[in-house]
Model the fold of this input.
Amino acid sequence: MTEIEEAVAVCFVVRIDDESLGSFSGCDGLGCEFTMEQREEGGNNGMVWQLPTRIKYSNVKLTRPVTRESAKITAWIAGMASGVTRKTATIEARTLGGTKIASWELAEVVPVRWSGPQLSADSPKVATETLELAHHGFLTPAR
Done:
């Protein structure tokens, strides 16, 4: 009997192509939604056909405290000033011990938004940053 590992992730390691952006403490928005079209069939009053038409992928928001790795994000975004190049992103959910629980590969990723920390001497709290990514879907991992 195999033991099932619980999906309790404490960090998310992110790579853009082969460049590491480091680890993040929060990952929100991994998902997709099918747009459904309804069609009524003549003479069939018992149901309405639900037909999937398009698939929409939500933006992925990654958050973490500001670290030395934060410069990797700003360097990536600054490099896009001369032209946007879509890349592949890999997000790995890991345990406290560093064991990979699951991973997702996102196709044709571009940064949508980066939010740096709000700095104020009046309210000392952890400086955080947020990176938002748009993508064109999930890639199937090679077997």
